[in-house]
Amino acid sequence: MKRLALIAAASASLAACAGGLDGPTVSTVGMPGALEPIHAAAFTKDQAVFWVSSNGCTRKEDLIPIVSIKGGDAIITLRRIDEDTCDKPSIRGVELKWSFEELGLAPGSPVSVNNPYQLPQT
Known about the structure:
17% helix; alpha+beta; signal; 4-stranded mixed beta sheet; Lipoprotein
């Protein structure tokens, strides 16, 4: 839990640099699904990792990452396309990963998040 809190804090501060705390940095009009609040996001050289809420059945296939390029930097907007109708909420949410290759990004690309942050429910 301590690791998750640290990642969430770091992610929030990174998002603030991109304007993520003031609202979306790119327009979400016309994007499929619903904008997904995230608990945390982290990026390695070639992978994007998100923690999202789950009612017990959230899978990677239930969300779609939409990559926009603004000023040469990639901005990922995570959208939920299938609702999680299960009734066993996960307090910590679930971890979902996408490789930069899946996202159409070169390894080491600068990335930010366009989603609002929501602390896990306790």
